[in-house]
Design goal:
Blueprint (H helix, E strand, L loop, with lengths): L1 E4 L12 E4 L10 E3 L7 H5 L13 E3 L5 H4 L2 H8 L2 E4 L8 E2 L5 E4 L2 E7 L8 E5 L4 E5 L11 E3 H11 L5 E4 L9 H13 L2 E3 L1
Parallel strand pairs: 3-4, 4-5, 5-6, 10-12, 11-13
Antiparallel strand pairs: 1-2, 2-3, 7-8, 8-9, 9-10
Helix pairs in contact: 4-5
C-alpha cells in the first residue's frame, strides 16, 4: 500500500487528505482518498500521480467526519471522478454510510472502521491490522494534561484504540506519528482516566 499526503490549498485552513494506492496499481485495487480538505485543490495533485493504467484515479472517498476542513471538496471530487463517498452519517453527497467494525478494502489492503466519537459524533478512524496503520482523522491520540474535562465518548474511543497494535498514525492535521504511537495512545488513556468527565 502506498500512502500519499496530498497537497492542500495554502490559502485556506485545511485538514490533511491522503490518497491510498496499491503497491502495484492492480485493476482490483481500490484507489481511495481519505478526507478532501476544505476544497477541491487536491485534485491538481491527484491528476499528477500515476494511479494505474486504465483505472479511475479515485474509486472511493472516505470521510473521517463531516467538518468543512475535511469534506469541503466532496461535491466537486465526486462529480470529477464519478466515485462513491463513504461516511458514518448520511448527507447530500454521501453514497453510503459505514458502521463500527465494518471491513473496507482500501487500495490493496483491508481496513476496519472504528467509530470514535469525541471530536464529533460521526468521527471514525480507519485501521489496517496487517500493517499497523491508523488514519485517525481528528480523534486526538495525544493528551498531555489530566486537568481537562473530557466526554465519556472520547474516553471510550481512546480505550478502543489502545487495544490495537499501531505502527504509524496518519492524523487529520500535522505529520504522521511514527515514534511509539501505541505508547502515546496508552498514556493518553491513562491521563483521561484521571480526568474529569463531562456529561
Amino acid at each position: 500500500m502506498k500512502v500519499i499526503k496530498l497537497q492542500h490549498n495554502p490559502a485556506i485552513y485545511c485538514g490533511n487528505a491522503y490518497l491510498l494506492l496499491g503497491d502495484w496499481n492492480k485493476l482490483d485495487d481500490v484507489n481511495t482518498v481519505i478526507d478532501t480538505t476544505s476544497d477541491s485543490f487536491i485534485t491538481k495533485h491527484i491528476d499528477e500521480i500515476n494511479t494505474g493504467l486504465g483505472k479511475n484515479a479515485v474509486d472511493r472517498i472516505i470521510l473521517t467526519h463531516s467538518h468543512f476542513d475535511h469534506n469541503g471538496g466532496v461535491a466537486v471530487m465526486k462529480k470529477k471522478y464519478d466515485c462513491e463517498v463513504l461516511a458514518y452519517l448520511p448527507g447530500s453527497d454521501i453514497t453510503r454510510t459505514v458502521h463500527d467494525g465494518e471491513e473496507i478494502k482500501i487500495a490493496d489492503c483491508y481496513f476496519t472502521v472504528i467509530h470514535t466519537p469525541g471530536h464529533s459524533s460521526d468521527s471514525i478512524c480507519l485501521y489496517c491490522k496487517k500493517d499497523g496503520v491508523l488514519f485517525s482523522g481528528d480523534t486526538s491520540i495525544r493528551v498531555y494534561q489530566n486537568d481537562g474535562t473530557y466526554t465519556a465518548d472520547f474516553v471510550e474511543s481512546i480505550e478502543k484504540l489502545s487495544k490495537l497494535h499501531v505502527r504509524i498514525v496518519y492524523p487529520g492535521h500535522g505529520d504522521p506519528i511514527t515514534e511509539n504511537p501505541d505508547g502515546i495512545i496508552k498514556e493518553t488513556l491513562k491521563i483521561l482516566t484521571k480526568s474529569t468527565l463531562s456529561i
